[in-house]
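Supplementary Methods S3. Input chains for the assembly prediction are listed below.
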Amino acid sequence: MLVAVLMGATVAVSSVLRGVPVSLDFSSVGPFAFTLTVDRLSAFFLFLICFVAGPVIVFFIPYAEHHYHRAGRTWIWILLPLFLLSMVVVATASSAFAFLFGWELMTLFSAGLILVEGDSPERRHDLMIYLLMMHVGAAAVVACYFLFLPYSHSLDFAAIRGAAGNLPPTTRTLIFLLAFIGFGTKAGIIPLHLWLPRAHPIAPSPVSALMSGVMLKTAVYGFVRFGFDFLGGGPAWWGYLVLFAGAVSGILGVLYALSEQDLKRLLAYSSIENIGIIFLGLGTALIFMAHDARMWATLALIAALLHTLNHAIFKSLLFLGAGAISNSAHTLDLEELGGLQKRMPFTGATFLIACGSIAGLPLFSGFISEWLTFRSFLAGSTLAGAKAQFLLPLMTGALGLIGGLGVACFIKAYGIAFLGRPRSTGATLALEVPTAMRVGMMVLATACLAIGILPGAVLQPLLLVVSGLIRDSEIPPDITLISRTVPLIAVSLLGLLAVISLTRRNRRAVPTWACGLPELTSRMEYTSTAFSKPIRWVFSSVYRPDRKIEVSPADSYFPASISYRSVRTTSFEKSLYRPAVDGIVSVAHQLRRLHTGNIQFYLLYIFLTLVGLLAFLRIFR
Amino acid sequence: MDLVSLAAAKALTSTAALLFITVLLMAATKRISTIIFLFALQSAILTVQVAIIAYLNNSPEAYAVAIMVLLLKVVGIPYALFRLIERLHSPRGVGASISPAQSVFVAVILIFLAFSAVRTYAADLGGMEEALAAGVALILSGAFLMVSRNKALMQIMGLLVLENGVFLAALATTFGMPLVIEIGISFDLVMGVLLMGIFTFRIRDTFEHLDVSKLRRLRG
Amino acid sequence: MRVYLDLAQALLLVAGAPLVRGIIARLKAWIQRRQGASIWRPYADLGKLFGKEDLVPPAASPVFRFAPVLLFAVIVLATGFVPVLHSSALFGTASDFILLVYLIALGRFFMSLGAIDGGSAFGGMGASREALVSTLAEAPLLLSLMSVAILAHSGSISDIVSWTLRQNFFDISLVHALAFAALVIVGIAETGRLPVDNPTTHLELTMIHEAMVLEYSGPSLAFIEWAQAIKLNLVLALLIGLFGPWGMATGLSASVIGISIAAYLLKLGVLIVTIALVESSLAKLRMYLVPDFLGVGSALGILAIMFTAFTGR
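Predicted structure tokens for the full assembly:
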């Protein structure tokens, strides 16, 4: 399996560099046209899948050994390759059938992998929500393809691409909106994100890594394929729609992440945030394309694709780190962790690198893509028309807020889990994970640093990828600027650090003064809830927590016990999904009246339908 | 145009920016005394603007207006208001019904609305658009202050800010008002403040607070 | 020659930082009718701290020891981004404003981790409060810098400064006034000055930055204090460079450089006196009012960006 993954990565790299599409045609063996083609865009995503999958598999081997019984392990090693294969099919498909085939299987295999982890009513409920939303999304994607059919007469990608120019504008808009909904559901754009924080945390950690790191990216792939390759951009409002959806997802995603205390749920919400950042870049690119500013569209699209790659790497690294933590400390509750850096130095170091990357700090990979996004906002001020001139630069504020909150969120994730004193026996007794797991994490961590310090190495191939989507574009000056600047900064910083560390310092370990108590304990430390409290207070209108305080006996100055409960619901569940669900249920109740149980009535329905259809044909044709 | 008048013309637009900042600070502040201070500051900026216009048009009448604004709005009314709150002994808060950050963002939207509304007439204004936009923004935010604060004193403050806006808008469109009209308006204003001051005392004496949202009880 | 000038201005920011602190403290003492310590006192403090040994809590990991060094290195590196004496910074066109903002964030990220690593209640408290302030300060900071970058058509601070230098003082637009106000508000929050944070307090209820560094001692504390002083100097230099660069050297002759030094010191002096006056007359805001304060900054930043679209360029 590793060999296959390596081969996939090699094919991808060579295909990006040479630009010659590689095709496979299985149409002769199947009932439908089933062709796979690796063009540069596919190759980029193929590389992404294979590059992340390798370390995850290496990590998975000891992890599965440690966590699952024989039956579970068998299921994992059956389902995991199929899951990877389905994603590869999605990324490389060049006919609608192949794409949808992979798309559906991807959902099913990931659901199967979630079930391996265990079974309980709540898990089933979450899984059902996952499957349901995936199918709604898939329906939208199917509709997208079939809207092309009257114009292209074939569901081959080349035919679709050729037909896109002849579509009437309303159909184009309809296809775009459906693609946005379909792929947005898979990507977890707010408010279509409901499944994401439910499905990701309940999967085995390495599977979460693949789901968050790779599976979400197939949605980005689909959106880029439709929006840029097939449709070739559209009116500017498409871009603004995507831009605002991205901004909302980014801000709300990171706010929800910040308030979580379960590490994997925190990471799942932060995936929504990063998808938001990617869509900020995609939206900006669409706006530039509508204004025919190709160079800047190239810049924004590169920013989005690079963030896609970065997120794939650091998010899977973070999930692997979470897996390592649960492997050693047997919990993922931040309130029970702490002090792991001393006990698991290697995991801690890689986790720290991933946190630096996801927080968008310089010298780590996330910074490069966020920087490019900022620069494309700056370029927005050169567009014609006052609206575009300030709306794009205003997004700086949104991305700045996302960045600031992201830093706070990952100070919390790393600081509470790995630093200070251990808060439970599990954390106290934690041990470093086996070598194979460390190797997996190390590969990904190295990639984070490499992209962060030498961005030129990825940006040049990305230019090639994007040149296939946005033709006749000049190379944006920002690309060369960042490729030169960051190594310079890195070298200067390392030089400075070296000079400073030359100064000799005496060091002595002394217990902190505990105001006269015997010693400080972990109960005196700030908890993860306490850490995020000020920010939650400021944004309380977003969280709308339900608070319950029970004092017993009531109204007494010296109560015997006080219980405090605060439940945060995502405000969307209350205000958006609840009415929708209620509406559907009430419609279903109305429909129930049609079900009389009498077979003749059912026959009558069939008859009425037929007559109705005939009448429809007579009137409208 | 010589350098000084160029500078003066530029200063007119730059002071408009300062007015925007006072508007935002007024929206953010929580204390009545700060609002009064900001009002004095705002009036001082207005004085400078009138003086600049007086210099540009070389009209002694406008200088007289500037001096009147200075005496009345920078010194007189703020002093009277400070005395008033001293005598009232009421709590220092403005009784805001929305949080300062929210008010600030409302103020931003108001300023933006004012600016984009005025832009359509930019050609007719000849470089005074910033001043006019500031005037409209002052009118809007004065009204906003009156609506969103439920201390009786804040209604006076809102009115005063609103009047500053009307004054500035008139200044920007007419390039200096006739003195007589300005005197008339100022007299109105003094009367208004006087009456409102007396009313606040009555309200305080009757209800022992200044919260206008509780005046509903008068409905009977 | 030019490189020496570039290096000299960065060094000026680094080496002069404690002096700026000392002068502010002395001025405040003078305003409050106290004797006050010598203006060279911060240097003596740093020397004393560097001579001591580093006391480390037993729970701490290497992050605790590494954080102050990294903070100091990052802030020193950041001085290469800001023009002081002439219109180009040490890093020239690479002196990108986004990079500057995020470099400072990098230092703060590790400093907050170091604070949590101390394993006491105060470190976490300080880190949590710092996270609140810096999170809300980041957006207005980027917005205000972005607005001047839009006017200058460049993201590099050196380019922005040389563009501003070419403008007539009276051509300064609404955007500049708004961005300046926003940057002042953010600068106060970033450097932990009144009314956001009180650099001289040691009271649990009010500390933000001081709570973070409570566990540090000896050379580590010296690095932190020095970095904090440089940060203040950096923000002041940024305010001067972006909004009042007139007087900066354009050539390399001795007289021009002399004038630029004099002009810089004059402008710095005005800012220092303002800080001393403001800090002597204002009380610290309650922590839950800080978001409102920064909200005003954000609003100003948003307005600044909006007005860039209206200003004829």
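Chain A has a mean pLDDT of 86. Chains A and B do not touch (no CB pair under 8 Å).
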